[in-house]
């Protein structure tokens, strides 16, 4: 699961509010455009930022598998429910493989779904960066700075802080169960493994509920929620790096909007080339 990785990098030194605004504007730009050239540029720049942050692949590899599964399911659904969407968008039809009914495989559909894939790949690195390089306390402060209720911001902060605790509790309970002969490895049959995992999850849920009650009681005793506003220990003022990052993404977003308006379409049509 994703959790904050405390490192020293230019990305980590940016404030949480700046990273939140950068991520929001970056996602907006990726949603606006279907220009393949811009999306490829987004992906390359996002991967460079991921490298600069020094965050290791193992910190988010599990989420990549889940996203990959959803990614494939999404593309299959797009083709099943709208196999000629690319033809409608680009106005031409180049059949690569004839299939029954309306399911002819066209170059336009492949190019359209390629752009959908590029949109995913453009946003994912920045999303990982935002979560993995932002301290939960500073994340809550950044949410409150952009006018989100401090109660909601604090709830999000607690949830992010709680993820490593849940992982640690699950491992401890799992090790204790395995020491008593409960097998959850691949050697056991699938049905038995699922029952054993459920047996581990129940103590985990009960311990989580107990911890939630403890935290709630502590917050209530300290008068949390009585005031309309609150201060934040992790809140930091913007620095030159923050202003530079926001200026950069603002210029990129403005260029995307201008290009979309000037061209009259969000789509880059490669099929207008003489090649086709």
Automatic annotation (TrEMBL):
<feature type="transmembrane region" description="Helical">
    <location>
        <begin position="243"/>
        <end position="261"/>
    </location>
</feature>
<keyword id="KW-1133">Transmembrane helix</keyword>
<feature type="transmembrane region" description="Helical">
    <location>
        <begin position="62"/>
        <end position="81"/>
    </location>
</feature>
<keyword id="KW-0472">Membrane</keyword>
<protein>
    <submittedName>
        <fullName>Energy-coupling factor transporter transmembrane protein EcfT</fullName>
    </submittedName>
</protein>
<dbReference type="InterPro" id="IPR003339">
    <property type="entry name" value="ABC/ECF_trnsptr_transmembrane"/>
</dbReference>
<dbReference type="GO" id="GO:0005886">
    <property type="term" value="C:plasma membrane"/>
</dbReference>
<keyword id="KW-0812">Transmembrane</keyword>
<feature type="transmembrane region" description="Helical">
    <location>
        <begin position="20"/>
        <end position="50"/>
    </location>
</feature>
<feature type="transmembrane region" description="Helical">
    <location>
        <begin position="110"/>
        <end position="132"/>
    </location>
</feature>
<dbReference type="Pfam" id="PF02361">
    <property type="entry name" value="CbiQ"/>
</dbReference>
């Amino acid at each position: 699961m994703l959790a904050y990785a405390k490192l020293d990098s230019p990305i980590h030194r940016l404030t949480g509010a700046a990273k939140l605004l950068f991520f929001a504007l970056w996602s907006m730009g990726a949603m606006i455009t279907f220009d393949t050239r811009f999306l490829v540029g987004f992906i390359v720049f996002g991967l460079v930022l991921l490298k600069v942050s020094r965050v290791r692949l193992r910190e988010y590899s599990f989420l990549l598998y889940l996203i990959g599964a959803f990614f494939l399911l999404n593309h299959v659904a797009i083709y099943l429910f709208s196999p000629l969407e690319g033809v409608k968008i680009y106005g031409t039809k180049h059949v690569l493989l004839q299939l029954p009914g309306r399911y002819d495989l066209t170059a336009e559909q492949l190019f359209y779904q390629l752009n959908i894939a590029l949109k995913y790949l453009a946003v994912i690195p920045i999303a990982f960066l935002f979560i993995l390089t932002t301290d939960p306390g500073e994340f809550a402060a950044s949410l409150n700075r952009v006018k989100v209720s401090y109660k909601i911001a604090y709830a999000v902060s607690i949830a992010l802080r709680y993820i490593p605790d849940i992982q640690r509790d699950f491992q401890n309970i799992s090790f204790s169960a395995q020491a008593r002969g409960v097998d959850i490895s691949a050697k056991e049959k699938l049905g038995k493994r699922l029952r054993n995992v459920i047996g581990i999850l129940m103590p985990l849920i009960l311990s989580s509920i107990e911890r939630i009650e403890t935290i709630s009681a502590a917050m209530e005793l300290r008068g949390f929620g009585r005031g309309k506003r609150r201060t934040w220990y992790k809140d930091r003022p913007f620095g030159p790096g923050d202003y530079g990052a926001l200026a950069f993404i603002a210029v990129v977003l403005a260029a995307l909007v201008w290009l979309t308006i000037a061209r009259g379409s969000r789509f880059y049509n490669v099929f207008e080339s003489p090649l086709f």
